[in-house]
Design a protein that fits this description.
The complex is a heterodimer of chains A (318) and B (306). By secondary structure, chain A is of the alpha/beta class. Chain A is built from ten helices and eleven strands. In chain A, helix 3 runs parallel beside helix 5 and helix 4 crosses helix 5. In chain B, helix 5 packs antiparallel against helix 6, helix 8 runs antiparallel to helix 11 and helix 9 runs antiparallel to helix 10. Chain B is elongated, with a radius of gyration of 24 Å. The two termini of chain B are 24 Å apart. The chains are: A alpha/beta (318), B mainly alpha (306). The complex binds adenosine-5'-triphosphate (ATP) and magnesium ion. The site of magnesium ion has 3 residues of chain A, from helix 1.
């Protein structure tokens, strides 16, 4: 059973001058209980936008199409009200900048405990007790509850952010570049913590990151996005070691790997403009494999390892 | 302390360099002969060298004695305390109203940034902010004359009234000057609140608060505004410091017997001891409120406390 289901999700950002950027162009993604999914894709391809849309957190000038179900609740149907009913109790988030993601004037403990009380999960004193427990769970001493965000190191802050996110026992955890602002050693620790914690708590994890190592270590399934759509979706091991979509191949080749004698490539060209309609495959213009069929939009096909590519479908290359 | 010392010296020199002295006014009366003038000057100590005057003043000041007024021989401290007792409630009430209204309006404008409501609010705040005090005051005088008492702080014919009647009388008298103060301040407060609130609303932690499922009111007030209060606190304490030192124009327009009006009278009469006392008190009040502002900052924002 899936705890998170996005069906044909679209997001348009309406600019004041009437132009509109189609940032997410039909994302289908079903995540089952306890599944850990990594989301890859270059900057601006709509990863953050899709996550925010799933929680109904986009600004008011964004319009959203399609549907999102979290733990059975239709998030987008009932407007702000239904979105609020799933926030934090069913789906929580970890943000990139753990520093700016916390309120600078409230103590960590308060920021962890307040939502439990707000969502009527427990009384303030039980909430304090649970706060101590989740801090312990993420490897922080209970005394951190008395600290303010600026008093913690980046790694501790991100741990506190994770404690905050799991405190209300959600079923889905979105993590948007949770380690970008940290040094490599701490990055690895946070990655370990995330994968261990989600397994222990049976949490589904949707993690956006540019760090392929993180994806390899913390997730079991990898999704690749390009220009607002999913182009490849499969087991992490398969996607990373045997990518099928031409974009994924190039993306992986463009990723630096230490201790590997391999020339770094960059993908020629730029992603398509989002304020213009995209006909056919969005990657066709940059794709070495492009042929006539690419003027129609490919669909995600396949069983365990799905790809949206005419060339793969026709067996032109593999 | 250093500031206070500098203030005494400054006020001493400053007021004494004004043309004329306490006797000049009296001397306009034809019956005051030059001999009498000289005697008066001697009495007030005005014939001594400036430095001796200052030394004497400082010696008495160290004993907590601000001297006596040249005009009515009453102790300066008593006069100032009496005036401050009148000014403080009016200034506090006005500032509180200004803060409350300015905050509500500023937060609302920020929440609906760019909307027609925001533009109307911001525009009127700007206009109010730039209008001269005496003009607003006089308009209020014209509009409310007859409806509300417009001058002084109590009805002179209200003698031996009970507690409630007196309280009501005071309240009616304080409305106009306090509202005038509030109107003056609210524009600036609303603009400051709006801009700091706009900044706070776009902070990541506000997105976190929304992700937590909090309702709009809680997000706007307890998360965003709570972290955006500092500029308002600075501005309020700064303004209060100056207001206690006398909203001279407001007090003049509404005949409010407070520190500001006392200052005007003292300047007119070249009442040096009173002026020096007032100057000292005003300086101290500004310094004290700045200090209060710093303390509040540290209380409200843990990042400042370090
Ligand atoms: N608030 C917004 N207003 C207007 N356009 C936006 C807004 N947020 C995102 N966009 C546009 O939507 C597109 C997708 O942005 P998004 O932030 O989702 O990308 P991303 O995949 O998360 O990139 P990154 O890896 O850099 O975080 C971008 O082209 C961006 O310009
Ligand atoms: Mg992003």
């Amino acid at each position: 059973m899936s705890v998170l289901e996005m069906r044909d999700l679209h997001v348009w950002f309406d600019a004041p001058d009437g132009a509109s950027a189609h940032a997410v162009r039909g994302v289908d993604l079903a995540v089952s209980v306890g599944e850990r999914v990594g989301v890859l894709g270059e900057s601006g391809c709509g990863k953050t936008t899709a996550i925010l849309a799933a929680m109904g957190l986009l600004p008011s000038f964004a319009s959203v199409g399609g549907s999102v179900h979290i733990d059975g609740v239709d998030v987008l149907a009932g407007g702000e009200k239904s979105a609020r009913s799933v926030r934090w109790t069913h789906a929580a988030m970890i943000f990139q900048g753990a520093m700016s993601a916390m309120n600078p004037v409230h103590r960590i403990g308060k920021q962890i405990a307040d939502p439990m009380v707000f969502h009527k999960q427990c009384t303030p004193s039980t909430a304090r007790e649970r706060t101590r427990k989740v801090l312990e769970l993420v490897g922080l001493p209970a005394s951190v509850a008395q600290r303010y965000p600026h008093e913690l190191s980046g790694g501790m802050r991100q741990r506190a952010g994770i404690a905050m996110a799991v405190a209300c026992e959600p079923k889905v955890l979105f993590a948007d570049e949770p380690t970008t602002a940290l040094d490599v050693v701490v990055q690895a620790q946070i990655g370990d913590l995330l994968s261990e914690l989600t397994q222990r708590l049976g949490l589904a994890l949707v993690m956006v990151t540019h760090d392929i190592g993180m994806i390899a270590e913390t997730t079991e399934r990898a999704v690749v996005m390009y220009a607002g759509v999913i182009v490849e979706d499969g087991r992490t091991f398969d996607v990373l070691t045997a990518p099928r979509h031409p974009y994924t191949r190039l993306l992986l080749e463009a990723t630096p790997v230490v201790n590997r004698d391999r020339p770094l490539v960059s993908i020629p060209g730029t992603p398509p403009r989002l304020d213009e309609a995209i006909r056919g495959c969005a990657f066709a213009a940059r794709c070495p494999q492009a042929f006539e069929a690419c003027t129609t939009r490919p669909t995600l096909l396949g069983e365990a390892h799905r790809v949206a590519c005419h060339a793969v479908e026709k067996g032109r290359f593999s | 302390m250093v500031i206070a010392l500098v203030a005494t010296l400054f006020s001493f020199v400053l007021f004494r360099t004004l043309p004329g002295d306490a006797v000049t006014n009296i001397a306009q009366s034809p019956r005051i002969t030059p001999e009498v003038q000289a005697a008066l000057r001697h009495n007030f100590g005005l014939d001594r060298p400036l430095w001796t005057q200052y030394a004497l003043y400082m010696r008495e000041l160290a004993r907590g004695n601000l001297g006596v007024s040249f005009t009515d021989a009453q102790p300066v401290s008593g006069k100032i305390i009496q005036a401050a007792k009148n000014t403080i409630p009016m200034a506090l009430l006005g500032t509180m109203m200004g803060i409350i209204v300015g905050t509500i309006i500023g937060v609302n404008a920020a929440y609906r940034q760019g909307s027609a409501r925001d533009r109307v609010i911001t525009g009127s705040a700007m206009i109010l902010y730039s209008l001269p005090v005496q003009w607003i005051g006089l308009l209020m005088l014209v509009w409310f004359a007859g409806v509300l008492p417009t001058s002084g702080m109590s009805d002179p014919y209200l003698i031996d009234a009970g507690f409630w009647a007196t309280a009501e009388d005071r309240l009616l008298h304080i409305i106009l000057p306090a509202t005038c103060v509030a109107l003056l301040l609210f524009g600036a407060f609303a603009l400051v609140v709006r801009s700091s609130q706009l900044e706070a609303l776009s902070d990541d932690h506000v997105l976190t608060a929304r992700a937590k499922g909090y309702g709009n009111r809680r997000v706007v007030w307890r998360e965003a505004f709570r972290s955006a209060m500092l500029p308002l606190v600075s501005l309020s304490t700064l303004t209060l410091g100056f207001l206690i030192g006398g909203g001279i124009l407001v007090e003049t327009v509404f005949g409010w017997p407070g520190v500001g009006r006392l200052t005007v009278q003292a300047v007119g009469a070249r009442d040096y001891p009173l002026l020096q006392g007032l100057f000292l008190v005003i300086t101290l009040s500004v310094v004290a409120f700045n200090f209060l502002g710093d303390v509040l900052h540290a209380v409200l924002d843990p990042r400042v406390a370090e």
